[in-house]
Design brief:
By secondary structure, the protein is of the alpha+beta class. The protein contains 13 helices and 10 strands. α7 packs antiparallel against α8, α7 packs across α12 and α12 runs antiparallel to α13. The two termini are 20 Å apart.
């Protein structure tokens, strides 16, 4: 199915639900937002969101309604300490809600870890500030940070097996099981269009050497014949440790959250985070490959995705006209060099073939 071995379907019983606290990741995203990002145009404060939930949701009486750890792309509210409601800030996210819901419903019985289970959604799909989706709250805390750093060698090996098994199962779910049309998220045309937008909007804010570097990376990736020689799969799209929920008491994963960027595409998009980025720690890719082998051609794509994959997310800011071009230039190109930025932050680029 992918450039590597055919994934196997797996299923582990367990509670289904949705998002738990996601504070670390949300705080990171907030740090990159201007104040204009934090207030959605055309919406009043929380009372309006509460009214929207009450009107459109079949949920029981709302006793408590509080803001959750909102971020760059969504406003989050928690009702009765049991249900999470996500309101996309931008039209692109609002329009993708139906795809996200369809994917979650299609995969939940085929993956070995709990994922968000949509229980309510606004009928006003496609309208930012009005469209929303609700899920039962999942237990656990984001794995990123102290929970991940506290794992010993045996626990890291178990985590790699859990996440590798989850990704194999996710990537083996037939796209035909999703009850909606799935656009190809990682096609050559999409990457070429993204590169065009980077050149037209961001290059003017970048140092000449950074422009040359980004051009080399994108053109080599787009023109390489093997780049798109994969069978498209359902992939998560943002598989960092901030979107893995973890129970510090049981020392086990309790769920996978934040499917905002899930869709049909290259499995290497997910593998890039666990294999090429170092986000899960040194040697994690080697442990994961024991349950999900990764080919050399996939490794090459992993390196590119990890360096430039965030670009598509931050270009959503560009389309709204609310982002700072200077910040976008730095973030969207993997910190490769806004003209007033410090020297390039060197992320791991070439994944070891041992991993």
């Amino acid at each position: 199915m992918t450039r590597g071995a055919k994934p196997a379907h797996t299923r582990t019983p367990g509670s289904r639900g949705a998002e738990g606290a996601n504070g670390a990741h949300r705080a990171c995203r907030r740090a990159h937002c201007s104040p204009r990002h934090r207030t959605m145009k055309g919406m009043e404060p929380e009372t309006d969101y509460r009214a929207a939930v009450r009107e459109a949701s079949p949920a029981p009486m709302i006793r408590t309604f509080r803001p959750g750890p909102s971020g760059q792309f969504n406003r989050i509210f928690i009702t009765n300490e049991k249900v999470v409601f996500r309101f996309p800030r931008y039209a692109e996210g609002a329009q993708r809600l139906s795809i996200q819901v369809a994917i979650l419903r299609a995969i939940r019985d085929h993956v070995p870890l709990p994922v968000p289970e949509p229980i309510s959604a606004s009928p006003a799909a496609g309208r930012p500030g009005v469209a929303f989706v609700g899920y039962p709250l999942l237990p656990g805390v984001p794995l990123a940070g102290e929970p991940l750093q506290s794992l010993d060698s045996g626990e890291r090996a178990h985590l790699a097996a859990e996440l590798g098994t989850f990704l194999r199962a996710l990537h083996s779910v037939s796209p035909s099981a999703v009850q909606t049309d799935l656009p190809h998220m990682d096609s050559r045309d999409r990457w070429a269009d993204l590169y065009r937008r980077i050149r037209s909007r961001l290059f003017q804010h970048m140092r000449p050497e950074a422009r040359s570097q980004v051009a080399r990376h994108f053109e080599a990736f787009i023109d390489q014949p093997d780049t798109f020689a994969y069978e498209p799969v359902i992939r998560h799209g943002d598989f960092g440790p901030e979107n893995v929920l973890y129970d510090p008491t049981t020392r086990r994963v309790t769920g996978i959250i934040d499917f905002d960027f899930a869709g049909l595409g290259d499995p290497a998009v997910d593998l890039s985070v666990v294999v090429a980025s170092g986000a899960y720690g040194e040697g994690f890719g080697a442990r994961l490959s024991a349950v999900y082998p990764v080919t050399n051609s996939a490794l090459s794509c992993c390196a590119f995705y990890r360096r430039h994959g965030r670009c598509r997310r931050h270009c959503m800011e560009s389309s709204t006209g609310t982002g700072s071009p200077l910040n976008e230039a730095s973030r969207a190109t993997g910190d490769a060099g806004a003209s007033s930025a410090p020297e390039m932050h060197r992320l791991p680029y070439h994944a070891s073939r041992d991993q």
